[in-house]
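Below is how a single chain appears once it has passed through the pipeline. First comes the sequence as given, then the structure the pipeline wrote out for it. We keep one example in the README because the format questions we get most often are answered faster by looking than by reading.
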Amino acid sequence: MSPIASRDDVELLGVGIGHHFGSLEVLHSITLSIRRGEWVALTGPSGSGKTTLLAIMGGLLRPTVGAAHLVDAAGARHNGIERSVAWVLQTATAIGTRSVLDNAALGGLSAGMRSATAADVAAGVLAAVGLDLRLTHRARDLSGGELQRLSIARALTSARPFLFADEPTGQLDRKTSDQVMDAMAQACSDVGVLIATHDPSVAQRCQRTLTLQNGHLNGS
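Resulting structure:
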């Protein structure tokens, strides 16, 4: 199976996923699909395996049993999930001495874009997340919410069809969380989004909410 060539009509599919850490069963027989343009919330108590499931579905961790694949419009399965998923983590990071535009452009450079193309794409995405007036500012001068929006812009500049967010508002206050989620909604209309979150207001923004409990996935 070759890496999928197009982001159009692509689906991420996990089938029969189970995972153990030693004798501890974290995930049990999970089947999960995410389509491009769909927002899915993943909820559950701390330690329930949300981050582990994200890592497996994002191609960063091989499950003990089962598998995750990219599936194209014809139903063919492909490798290369890790090159199709961009990440936004709870703790936003950036190169503090470089500009906001330089930091966002790293997403495009990581996907093989030329420098000028990456900068052009980054500028457009930064405008979508409300940072168009901060392009030349150093990243270290951003607020916490602005830094998280920069993380979203950097992820989207990679032009990957899926974005996984692990507690993206976990360290933010309510107002700033709302601003970050508004920015994601503005910029991620054609991206498949999987968000691990404890925040009900974040989950309510998604089309589906799934809950991990005792290794099992529930929801619709």
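Residues 92-159 form one domain.

See the next section for the split statistics.
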